[in-house]
Design goal:
The protein contains six helices and ten strands; from the N terminus they run E-E-E-E-H-E-E-E-H-H-H-E-H-H-E-E. By secondary structure, the chain is α+β, with helices and mostly antiparallel strands.
Length: about 180
């Protein structure tokens, strides 16, 4: 079910069952929120073909599709929310009140700490991609694939699961924040 939390002109999107169009005329934002199925399909479409991540390893073979993880989604949600509300952009948590894991630890959180705090344990490998300012799933994926490290995460054969979350804050630098958390 699509839930939208509105607080102080902050729109947080929780990826739901269907697509929705979010408009904020004050900030000039029109965003077609993708469903979790659309997001998973976009990631698996890339993983289903050979890709050159331009990281010196040449063409990577197609890899197995990912499945959705609610624990990884919760971690991604925490990160996207932190980025949007603190108006920061880093794999480190902001260290502000919006960094839920960091607040408990008394310092900026690390991505794997957020993943573990969201209940994802017993993993061999985890990873995270963040993106900002992209108004569509297609553009966000294209931009991540241009980055060798982000592309390598998407194409990593060790990853089996993913969770993706989006947060919007019209008053922030990037307006739209995406987090992909991976595990295997």
């Amino acid at each position: 079910m699509l839930r939208i939390i509105i607080s102080y002109a902050l729109f947080i999107l929780i990826v739901g069952c269907g697509d929705a169009i979010i408009k904020d005329s004050r900030a000039g934002i029109e965003f077609n929120e993708p469903s979790k199925e659309s997001i998973l399909e976009a990631i698996n479409r890339v993983r289903g073909r050979s890709v050159d991540c331009h990281d010196g390893f040449g063409l990577r073979d197609a890899v197995a599709p990912l499945v959705w993880s609610e624990q990884l989604y919760r971690s991604a949600y925490r990160q996207s929310l932190d980025l949007a509300t603190s108006d920061t952009f880093s794999h480190l948590g902001s260290g502000t009140e919006y960094d839920a894991t960091g607040r408990v630890k008394g310092r900026r959180s690390l991505f794997y700490e957020r993943i573990e705090d969201s209940g994802y344990r017993g993993y061999n490998i985890v990873g995270e991609n963040i993106a900002g300012g992209h108004y569509s799933l297609e553009v966000m994926m294209e931009e991540l694939l241009k980055s060798p490290k982000h592309c390598a995460n998407i194409m990593n054969r060790e990853f089996r699961e993913v969770g993706v979350a989006i947060a919007i804050n019209p008053d922030s630098q990037y307006k739209i924040y995406w987090t992909q958390d991976f595990g295997g």
